[in-house]
């Protein structure tokens, strides 16, 4: 501006000030006019613009006018005004400080010459080292071995505070204009605090004449030790002392305690210039109840025998900051090895996590301002710091690159080592920088120790503007802060509460990151049957310097233990290598295992327990992604599966050549769903009914979709629509919705020619479809086979593969045997034309549920057939009691009891008209045809036998009806999968159940007394 302000020009000035961001433009205008009248000097346009660009223009203007008034009283205002006019850097730094910090504005008003440290090149006003500057301020010689202050009175303490704040002002000036990164600012603040402690120690020596009898080292802890201090913070310290040669230890320690106390007072005592900050020695051994100073030997003894978890965590940041440098270095050399062994304690990680939860709970009880907490609130600084420190302690035992005491450096090291995902590390670092920046701004305002975001509009506005948010500073800042806090909390929960760390923390220290020697020792200790082979797998997984190898080295120490907990550790490790080879270059795979401990632990159990599940996973390794969610592991609804399968077939059956391709896609769907059911079963998330229903649904969907593909192919080849309707009748366990993992699909084929169709042509077409369906499902493939077995059809293998509905009616009316009526009890027309399925059901219902029940001759015939089957069908040389299907009290015994009751009573008891064994027993109890106790015995025996058969298939990958008794590893595996402590426990439980079930069979089925 070149013209004086006049009353006529006030509206335009006030308007300009408002546009610049002054909240009380009228007051600002009045102050400017008063200043001009008082001094004849007035701010130019550049200075007004600079004031308007600050966080709080009103605050900045107030501070500037006070400084100018103070400088004017001392006759030095002219130089300041010229600098503000001619030096843009000086103008920017000074106004930035005044717009944020009322406290530094007060300091400048008391010491107006201190603005020189904000000048371009103003650092020349300061000594090169903060230590030299502050020692000189208290009259001590910086070059002396043990500097002693010129005095210990108030004037010395005032001089220390003035010199300290002068340097603080210079740092704030660079900080607030972006001249220093937040990490650099925190490091300089820590160095400045260390210099103040050194100066305080010099003042203490002046106060304690006997200081020469001892050596005293000051160990910085917390943020001071980690070189990440705030503008205003308690400075945490620990003191270590020793007697000088020729001095008594007790007297030397008393002198050291007085010296330490004097140093603390020198920094924390209140003066006309206030205090620096509190010096807090509560982190020392035994806390406030322990002696203020200890010898090195006493420190060592305490940490080796008595220290608690939180004390080791605190020691991560220990750093000598003042006093005897040699003693401080020896302290660090002594304590560091103890710190890095701390995480081997049985409850170390749990203790740290419990402590974190207690801090949060205490905060919530103490104050209603928890949500405004930058440090201790949800998503606050402590969340980041605790997570990083915990990861350091767990993994830093074997990886020395992780031992930085500075949070941001340690986080970067953890990311480089593969312990934290790059994206997570970047998000945490960004949030941490933001939160520390906000914390600095909050504390600078009044130079008070606070971690609360302001609750008032003006304070939030000042913060937002200081961060460069000008459009809507309050709303923009609040949204940005909340977003960072949410992100920190999300990542913190994943890292800090990750149970994977608990397992790693309990490994011997040499095994947290694998070496070849550690791997061999570990494998032998865990009982791997082939340590050499296992080691080759480990070496293949962990060799190299890739990120993939780094993450594997992090995962494997834990997973080796999980594999060892499984029945077959060697198979588990081999399977893990095979899946990792298949998916290792997929970005999400290793990240999923590292970050979702449930996935890694479940995968280890499956691979070490089940050949069946492992084979399925190796053929569809991407299915590992479902292991982390209980919801994803629940069997899918039948209709959803059916829709997916039929849609897949439609997409691939547009021409003859693609029927095989369609079934290939269908097999992939079946493979995925079998894996889902197997995992649910192995993890105890599905009972036998759920498993049977799910496996039946998968088989039904597979057969129906294959039937669709077969029909399409035959129609294309014949160049005409199929001249008949077709249906597939599920029989046996398929019809009973009780399929096992190794069950065939027993079926019958039925067709019904369309009106006007030639019956022979319709029969040929139906037969072609049935044969094509069997061919498609029998094509060579590595998947578990689904064999279509049509041998329960009328006349068995001698009869036609496909019959018309009329042919079935004629056969059952004239030739049906009692065993065929019994077989129809489990017939369920599941697949094909809906109308034909219902007509077939109506046809067979009178056959399987005869109106008059069974006559005595028919009952005797069924009993004879059962007895002959027991003697003839049991394989030679097999111990009858070990056979889960045909042995006494086994599956067949229970099922024949249920089926006899159905043949006798289903016509009059509708609830018995079911194809399911257990539902039949329940209905028989409801109709008082079977004692509830007998039904419970039969049900439990059937469940146990079914579980054993399923577990055998899961473990071996091959079906068997025999209890495993000869192969030690398989026997142990089946026992473990079933949840028994030992093999004998399983055998005894099975014998007890089957013995009781056989007694019921003798009474109910055979009519024994």
What is the topology?
Blueprint: H1 10-20, H2 25-39, H3 45-52, H4 57-73, H5 77-86, H6 88-100, H7 102-110, H8 130-137, H9 154-176, H10 182-207, E1 214-220, H11 222-225, E2 235-243, H12 249-268, E3 279-280, E4 293-294, H13 296-305, H14 309-315, E5 319-323, H15 325-339, H16 348-366, H17 381-395, H18 407-416, H19 422-446, H20 457-466, H21 473-496, H22 499-505, H23 516-526, H24 531-542, H25 547-565, H26 569-583, H27 587-595, H28 597-609, H29 611-619, H30 630-633, H31 638-651, H32 659-682, H33 688-718, E6 724-730, H34 732-735, E7 745-753, H35 759-778, E8 788-789, E9 802-804, H36 805-814, H37 818-824, E10 828-832, H38 834-848, H39 856-872, H40 891-905, H41 917-926, H42 932-956, H43 968-978, H44 983-1004
Parallel strand pairs: 2-3, 2-4, 7-8, 7-9
Antiparallel strand pairs: 1-2, 1-5, 6-7, 6-10
Description of the molecule:
By secondary structure, this protein is mainly alpha-helical. The protein contains 44 helices and ten strands. Strands 1, 2, 3, 4 and 5 form a five-stranded mixed β-sheet that branches. Strands 6, 7, 8, 9 and 10 form a five-stranded mixed β-sheet that branches.
């Amino acid at each position: 501006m070149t013209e004086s302000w006049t009353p006529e020009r006030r509206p335009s000035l006030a308007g300009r000030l408002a546009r610049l961001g002054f909240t009380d433009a009228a007051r600002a205008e009045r102050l400017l006019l008063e200043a001009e009248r008082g001094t004849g000097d007035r701010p130019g346009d550049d200075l007004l613009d600079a004031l308007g660009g600050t966080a709080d223009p009103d605050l900045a203007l107030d501070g500037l006018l006070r400084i100018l008034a103070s400088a004017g009283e001392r006759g030095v205002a002219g130089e300041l005004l010229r600098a503000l006019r001619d030096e843009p850097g000086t103008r920017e730094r000074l106004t930035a400080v005044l717009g944020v910090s009322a406290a530094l504005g007060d300091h400048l008003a008391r010491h107006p010459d201190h603005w020189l440290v904000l000048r371009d090149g103003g650092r020349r006003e300061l000594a090169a080292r903060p230590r030299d500057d502050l020692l000189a301020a208290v009259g001590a010689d910086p070059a002396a071995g043990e500097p002693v202050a010129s005095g210990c009175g108030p004037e010395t303490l005032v001089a220390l505070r003035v010199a300290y704040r002068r340097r603080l002002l210079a740092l704030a000036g660079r900080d607030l204009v972006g001249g220093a990164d937040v990490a650099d600012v925190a490091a300089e603040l820590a160095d400045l605090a260390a210099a103040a402690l050194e100066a305080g120690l010099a003042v203490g020596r002046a106060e304690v004449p006997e200081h020469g009898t001892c050596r005293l080292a000051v160990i910085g802890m917390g943020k001071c030790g980690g070189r990440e201090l705030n503008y205003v913070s308690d400075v945490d310290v620990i003191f270590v002392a020793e007697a000088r040669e020729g001095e008594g230890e007790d007297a030397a320690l008393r002198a050291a305690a007085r010296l330490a106390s004097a140093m603390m007072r020198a920094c924390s005592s209140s003066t006309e210039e206030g205090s620096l900050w509190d010096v807090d020695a509560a982190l020392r051994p035994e806390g406030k109840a322990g002696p203020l100073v200890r010898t090195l030997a006493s420190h060592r003894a305490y940490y080796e025998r008595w220290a608690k978890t939180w004390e080791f965590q605190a020691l991560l940041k220990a750093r000598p900051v003042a006093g005897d440098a040699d003693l401080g270095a020896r302290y660090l050399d002594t304590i560091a090895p103890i710190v890095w062994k701390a995480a081997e304690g049985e409850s170390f990680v749990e203790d740290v996590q419990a402590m974190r939860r207690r801090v949060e709970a205490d905060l919530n009880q103490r104050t209603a301002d928890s949500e405004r907490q930058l440090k201790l609130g949800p998503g606050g600084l402590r969340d980041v710091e605790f997570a990083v420190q915990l990861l350091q302690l767990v993994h830093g035992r074997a990886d020395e690159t992780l031992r930085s005491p500075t949070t941001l450096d340690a986080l970067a090291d953890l990311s480089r080592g593969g312990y934290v995902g790059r994206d997570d590390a970047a998000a945490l670092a960004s949030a941490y920088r933001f939160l520390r920046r906000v914390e600095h701004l909050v504390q600078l305002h009044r130079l008070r120790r606070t971690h609360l975001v302001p609750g008032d509009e003006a304070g939030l506005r000042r913060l937002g503007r200081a961060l460069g948010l000008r459009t809507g500073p309050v709303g923009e800042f609040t949204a940005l802060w909340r977003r960072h806090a949410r992100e920190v909390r999300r990542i913190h929960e994943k890292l800090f509460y990750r149970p994977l760390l608990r397992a790693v923390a309990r490994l011997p220290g040499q095994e947290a990151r694998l070496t070849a020697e550690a791997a061999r020792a570990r494998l032998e200790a865990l009982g791997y049957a082939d340590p050499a082979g296992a080691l080759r797998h480990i070496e293949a997984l962990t060799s190299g310097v890739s990120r993939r190898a780094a993450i594997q080295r992090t995962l494997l120490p834990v997973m080796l233990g999980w594999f060892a907990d499984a029945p077959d550790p060697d198979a588990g490790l081999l399977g893990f290598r095979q899946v990792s080879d298949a998916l290792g270059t997929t970005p999400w795979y290793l990240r999923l295992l590292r970050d979702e401990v449930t996935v890694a632990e479940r995968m280890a159990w499956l691979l070490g327990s089940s050949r069946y599940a492992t084979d399925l996973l190796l053929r569809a390794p991407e299915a590992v992604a479902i292991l982390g969610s209980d919801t994803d592991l629940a069997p899918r609804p039948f209709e959803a599966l059916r829709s997916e399968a039929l849609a897949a077939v439609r997409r691939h059956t547009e021409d003859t050549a693609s029927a095989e391709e369609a079934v290939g896609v269908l097999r992939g769907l079946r493979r995925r769903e079998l894996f889902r059911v197997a995992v649910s079963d192995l993890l105890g998330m599905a009972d036998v009914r759920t498993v049977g229903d799910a496996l039946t649904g998968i088989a039904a969907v597979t057969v129906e979709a294959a039937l669709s593909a077969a029909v399409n192919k035959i129609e294309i080849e014949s160049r005409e629509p199929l001249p008949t309707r077709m249906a597939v009748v599920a029989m046996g366990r398929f019809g009973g919705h009780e399929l096992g993992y190794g069950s065939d699909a027993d079926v019958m084929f039925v067709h019904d020619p369309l009106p006007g169709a030639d019956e022979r042509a319709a029969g040929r077409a139906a037969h072609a479809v049935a044969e094509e369906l069997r061919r498609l499902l029998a094509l060579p493939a590595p998947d578990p086979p689904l064999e279509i077995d049509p041998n329960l059809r009328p006349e068995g293998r001698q009869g036609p593969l496909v019959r018309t509905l009329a042919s079935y009616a004629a056969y059952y009316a004239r030739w049906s045997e009692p065993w065929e009526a019994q077989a129809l009890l489990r017939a369920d027309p599941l697949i094909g034309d809906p109308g034909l399925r219902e007509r077939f059901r109506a046809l067979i219902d009178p056959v399987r549920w005869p109106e008059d029940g069974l006559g005595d001759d028919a009952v005797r015939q069924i009993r004879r057939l059962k007895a002959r089957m027991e003697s003839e069908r049991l394989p030679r040389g097999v111990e009858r009691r070990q056979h889960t299907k045909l042995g006494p009290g086994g599956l067949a015994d229970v099922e024949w009891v249920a089926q006899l009751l159905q043949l006798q009573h289903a016509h009059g008891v509708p609830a018995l008209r079911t194809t399911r064994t257990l539902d039949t027993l329940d209905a028989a109890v409801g109709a008082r045809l079977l004692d509830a106790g007998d039904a419970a015995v039969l049900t439990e025996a059937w469940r146990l036998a079914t579980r054993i058969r399923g577990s055998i298939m899961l473990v071996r990958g091959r079906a068997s009806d025999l209890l495993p008794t000869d192969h030690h590893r398989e026997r142990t595996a089946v026992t473990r999968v079933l949840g028994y402590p030992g093999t004998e426990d399983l055998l005894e439980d099975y014998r007890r159940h089957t013995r009781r079930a056989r007694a019921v069979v003798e009474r109910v089925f055979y009519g024994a007394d």
